Amino acid sequence: MPFTDALLNFVAPQAPLSLVGIASARSAILDFLGQGAGTAPQNIIGNTTPFGQPDAMGVGGYRMELMIATGAAAFVGAGVTLNIQLQAAPDLGTPTYQPGAWTTLSESGTIAVANLTGSTILWKNPWIPPLPANLRPRFLSLNFVIAGGTFTTGSIAYALNTTSRDDLTQKFAAKNFAV
After folding, report:
1. pLDDT (tens digit, 9 = 90+) per residue, 131-156?
2. What pTM does this model have?
3. What is the pLDDT of residues 80-129, one digit of tens each?
4. I want to staple 88 with a disulfide (CB 3.0 to 4.6 A). Which of 39, 49, 137, 144 is the partner?
5. Which range marks the domain in which residue 153 is found?
6. Is residue 117 part of a domain?
7. CA 95 to CA 167: how far, in whole Å?
């Protein structure tokens, strides 16, 4: 598994997120300030307005990658599908400093239960600038949307950010190919 920062985990590797018997689940909420929801932003060089991430977030040098994997057991649920949404929210500001309305930045699309096998990478996605351009999010989260029923087994083993992709590309090479 590639390098990751413990503060950038939507679902920590040692704390899987169960998706059994529910219609949707929200991952941990990441705060760009690192202080957590409900905490007032510190005064940043005289700026007392709520913090907002720049629109070019993640563009440049090393762009972060989001990686999500299933738990050891395969998902079970006839006709059930999963859609994973990367969502951002602005800071509501005084007095609560909680996430505002969630806006979907990108999503995996519908994943059929047949593809939700155990210990599988479900989705890899590069960080993208938040849209709309004036969203200025402080918070990020993953929303796991389950449709067509409920799962009787299945969990997300981890959902984290990495500094690089570790794809095993030669796995998909033609059989007569030698390196």
Report:
1. 666 677 888 899 999 999 999 999 99
2. 0.80
3. 999 999 998 988 887 888 999 999 988 999 999 999 999 988 888 877 66
4. 137
5. 1-33+62-79+113-128+149-161
6. yes
7. 44
